[in-house]
Specification:
By secondary structure, this protein is an alpha+beta fold. The protein folds into 2 domains: about 45 residues; about 140 residues, Umud Fragment, subunit A. It is about 25% helix and about 25% strand. The protein has 2 helices and 10 strands; from the N terminus they run H-H-E-E-E-E-E-E-E-E-E-E. A hairpin with a 2-residue loop joins strand 5 and strand 6. The radius of gyration is 28 Å and the shape is rod-shaped.
């Protein structure tokens, strides 16, 4: 056996086997490394970590968003390019708001404030002015009807969003309005 290994034919066979083994190892490594970079690219391109710059969501400072179009009631969403002109000093940064109403839900303005049905939310209180003194108009006017008040149905392709903070600037006000789905980048999957 050692004579075969030490012969020119034996050395040639060993070199070929080494090259084949190296090629197989390289191919496996190539696919593992390619898969790793593909996963990294998917994570980077499909997620965003956002800092909550306002007190809109109680106790939440950061939200990790996943690009998604399947939004449900209760999700926290990232909204981009939606009426930044009324906010004032905040930079043009995506909003993070909670979805309270989806297409087909009704928004009612009664004595307790704004209520979204079918999910009976407590009446969302209303402000008359922003912190900068700009007037705010409720999304549904109130005419003093005691129980049901006036209502508005959320149209297809729009969402009613609100912050947890009663002083949040959100869909309760006509100046913010309902959010078109094309302005929603994704939904929160992790918050802290």
């Amino acid at each position: 056996m050692s004579a075969l290994v030490n012969s020119p034919v034996g050395r040639s066979l060993m070199r070929r086997s080494f090259v084949r083994l190296s090629l197989v190892r390289f191919q496996k490594s190539y696919w593992i490394i390619s898969l790793f970079f593909l996963c990294c690219w998917l994570v980077v391109s499909q997620t965003r970590l956002r800092e909550c710059l306002s007190d809109s969501l109680d106790g939440i400072n950061y939200v990790l968003f996943l690009k998604s179009s399947s939004i449900q009631r209760g999700d926290i969403v990232s909204i981009q390019g939606h009426r930044e002109d009324h906010v004032g000093t905040l930079p043009k940064w995506p909003y993070a708001k909670r979805v309270l109403g989806i297409p087909g839900d009704r928004i009612i303005h009664n004595n307790s404030g704004i209520t979204v049905i079918p999910k009976e939310s407590d009446g969302l209180s209303l402000l008359t002015k922003t912190s900068k003194g700009k007037l705010l108009t409720p999304i549904v006017p109130f005419i003093g009807v005691p129980l049901n008040g006036l209502s508005k149905t959320i149209p297809e392709g729009c969402l009613f969003v609100a912050g947890d903070n009663p002083k949040s600037f959100d869909s309760r006000y006509d100046e913010f309005g309902l959010v078109p789905m094309e302005k929603v980048w994704g939904k929160g999957i992790l918050q802290w």
